[in-house]
Amino acid sequence: MAKIKVGFGFDVHQLKQQHPFILGGVNLEHTSGAFGHSDADVLLHAICDALLGAANLRDIGFHFSNTDDRWKGISSLVLLQNVVALLAEKNWQIGNIDAMVCLEAPKINPHIPAMKAHIAQAAGISEEDISIKATTNEKLGFIGREEGVVAYAVCLIERL
């Protein structure tokens, strides 16, 4: 059996005016926010998919369906905790997480330390093992028009 595996995750959500914007477990002040079945935290959803993919455990939609009312409005930090528990059942632990958020606004750099703290606590790993970066889409496409937000994540998991 492999001792280490790598996973990739991606998520996208529509932005809606006057809607909460939760990113990395942090409520951002902004005129619009990501819309979805749960709290629509694209960063945490991408991280969950990367972890699930690395362990060959399907995807976030398989485990937390958007047709299941148990997950409606739930904090994605809870989803991450559940994913980490699934990994532990299969004898995997997280080595590291590297994530990228693509959006025009708001600027997330001041919020990255809080995001890392939330993710570290939910995932049971050190903040040193989490990297979060951000970029714009240079005003191009749906991201440039501030109609949506995208997140990508890669992770390394290790056999216990």
What would your notes on this structure say?
The protein has 160 residues and is of the alpha+beta class. It has a single domain, classed as 60s Ribosomal Protein L30, Chain: A, CATH 3.30.1330. Helices cover 29% and strands 33% of the residues. The chain contains five helices and seven strands, in the order E-E-E-E-H-H-H-E-H-E-H-E. A five-stranded mixed sheet has the order 4-1-7-5-6. Strand 2 and strand 3 form a beta hairpin. Helix 1 runs parallel beside helix 3 and helix 3 packs parallel to helix 4. It is globular. The termini are close together. The model has no long low-confidence stretch (mean pLDDT 96).
In short:
The chain is α+β, with helices and mostly antiparallel strands.
